[in-house]
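FW: tagging you since you asked about this chain on Friday. Here's the raw sequence from the shared folder, copied in full. Didn't touch anything.
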Amino acid sequence: MEKSDVSLAARPEALRANGGDLVAAKREVAAQQARYPQIRVPVAILLGDGDRMVSPSIHGMKLAQILPNARIDVVRGAGHLPHEAAPDRFHKLFDWVEASK
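HL: got it, structure written out here
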C-alpha cells in the first residue's frame, strides 16, 4: 500500500480551490431543491443519527418529507457510514428500490 502525501491538501491553493468547490456545490444544490418534489423514482435514504458530516435532520429527514416516493431508515448510533454499520438494512432498502421499478 502506498502512502499519500496529505500535506498537499493543506496547501493554500488547494484549500482555496476546495472552498470554491464547496461554495459552488451549495449554490447548485440550493437551486435544485425546488424541483425535488418532481422526482418520481423511488429514493432510499439510509442515515446514521450520529452523522457529524451532514445533518441527519436537514439532509435526510427533510429530504424524505419532500420526495414523493422516498423511504428512510435511521440507524441509531451510526455515523456517516450507516451502510457499514447496518449492511442488512442497506440491502433491504436496495431491494425496495429494485422492487419499485
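FW: The chain has one domain: 6-100.
HL: agreed, and DSSP finds four helices and two strands in the chain.
FW: great, closing this out.
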